[in-house]
C-alpha cells in the first residue's frame, strides 16, 4: 500500500516536537552568541592606496593613453610583488614583527578596481593600530623596492591607512553569526523532528493500526483516567439517590 504524507501530518509532527525544535534552536543561538562575543578575538582591517602613474619628471606624457595602458598591465605584476618575500621580509625587518613571511602574507589583501591605476592594500590584524602600521609600511617598502626590481619609478602613495576612534572590527560579526545559528538550529531541529517521527514505529492510535495492518478499524477502546472513573461513580450514586428519594416521596 502506498503511503502518503499530508501537510496536516507534517504540521502535526512539528507541533508534537516543538519543544525539541525550540531547544535545539535556542542552544545553537546561545553557543553562537558565547563564541562570537567571548571566544573569538576581534579582527580589524586597515587599508592604504598606491597610485601607478608615469614618472614625476615626465610631465609631457601624463595623459598619454599608451602609458596609462602600460601601467594598467603592470598592476597585476605589482599585486604579486607586493606580497612577495622580498617586500614582506623587509617589512618584518623594519617593524621587528614576530611573524613569518607566510603569516604576514595571510593578513594582506591586495586588489584593484577594473581599469583603475589605484591599488588597494588591506591588512587584517587583531590590533587596529598594528594593521594600519603594517599597511603603510608595505606601501613604503614596495615603493622603494619596485625601483630596484623593475627600474621603474611610477608608484606613489595616494592615501595612508589610519585608525578611526571607535573603529568596528571586520570579524567576527556576532549578529550575523547569531542569525545564521538561528536558521541552522531551526532547520536542524525540524529535520531531527521529522527523522525521529519517521523512525518511530510504535502504534499509538487506530490510524496507525490501519496503516500497519491495512485493515479497517471496527472499534476502539477508550482509556478512562481514574479521576474520571471516580467522578462517574459519584454521579451515578447521586443519580440513584435522587431516584430513590423521588420514588419514596
TrEMBL record:
Belongs to the CpsC/CapA family. This is Capsular biosynthesis protein. It comes from Mesobacillus zeae. Residues 3-94 form the Polysaccharide chain length determinant N-terminal domain. It is a multi-pass membrane protein. The keyword Glycoprotein does not apply. GO terms for cellular component: plasma membrane. It is found in: Cell membrane. Keywords: Cell membrane, Membrane, Transmembrane, Transmembrane helix.
